[in-house]
């Protein structure tokens, strides 16, 4: 039988049976490495641009420190969070997501918020955004999503048809789309926005007791956003506006800071909470899980060399320290592989030997050779484990804590498909002026879309979140809300 020539295939020509859901152990995961389609998709995606970052190419960074202000040792054994007053050096990189290295800072886009803590137990990277949610919840969809944000392969122009077609066919994006198109879509500066770990992570204390955790960095400067017309003006007159603002503020001694809070969820609540706590398109209600203060991050030193420190900085959400572990979040599970793999390609297999990435604690491993090895390559020391010659050995006390998985290995979606409640709640929280600006931004962004089919499908999502929301978008586009939504 001849295969359908329009079937999606792998690079070796085999048909792809599921391009929406990664393969997991049971419905909740974790993701299986046997999902070779997912691995190929992510690995190829990481190599699509040379040499700048595929995403988050344009950014700015700064050095600083993190100081613990509240005892959280009952939740985590992480050494850098172990006592009030403890300070840990850190580096942060802020960025836009979709634009190239020379793009404007003031575009409507999420902002990357990547923090590297140089702890006594190794580097801990918290790689998040300035939003608590994301557009998709399964890493298998990430390359497709980012392609829609990039340039059309023929015209080399941004393509609103692709953007809204993908979003309208991926209703889980609605919450993040609402945030992006709101006032928060264009921060006034990097200093005047919050940061979030976005994903759910696991904290483990010294007794081996675990909880689920979400991170919230609240700006101490207060939230400020840019008017859309002023943002467009600045994009033309000073495309490096946010980069310049951060550098000048620190240079003048006006050190920006953020207070870190966490939400803590008992492990057993994950089975009963009204939203799947591992779905990165959803938030946890702060009424259910109140914010707990952890500490304060202060930025007090600019890089000496942009390329050496900002451009060559590498972050991976898989860089954990004892007391902090992954959750079954499907988007996080994919990022655990993809980010480190991207750095091995973009900067080199020995990227962690560069000064900006080098841990400030002893490193003992059996990795040898590779391009641009910058240290003694392990000298004459032991290069395998286990061994009988006194080489470094594993530390069983730091084994990852187990969590139960069940079910069959299969490519399945999340159990919960309520993509509308939280987006509608966010819309209803806005003032009338905020709603009007949100509607205007969405209407202006959707006007260039050529197919009414795409517009109507997206209007249906807005309407399901809140009838007024959908009706106002429809009126702005000169369309009617589709019947039956």
TrEMBL record:
Transmembrane segments: none
Domain Catalase core: 9-393
Organism: Paenibacillus thailandensis
SUPFAM superfamilies for the chain: Heme-dependent catalase-like (SSF56634)
Matching InterPro entries: Catalase, Catalase_3, Catalase_AS, Catalase_clade1/3, Catalase_core, Catalase_haem_BS, Catalase_immune_responsive, Catalase_sf
Catalyzed reaction equations: 2 H2O2 = O2 + 2 H2O
The organism's taxonomic lineage, starting at the top: Bacteria, Bacillati, Bacillota, Bacilli, Bacillales
Keywords per UniProt: Heme, Hydrogen peroxide, Iron, Metal-binding, Oxidoreductase, Peroxidase
Magnesium listed as a keyword: no
Any one GO molecular function term: catalase activity
Family as reported in the entry's similarity comment: Belongs to the catalase family.
PANTHER family (UniProt xref): CATALASE
DNA repair as UniProt keyword: no
Entry EC no(s): 1.11.1.6
Descriptive protein name: Catalase
Region: Disordered, residue numbers: 1-26
Gene3D superfamilies found in the cross-reference section: Catalase core domain
Biased composition (Polar residues): 1-24
Pfam family, one: Catalase
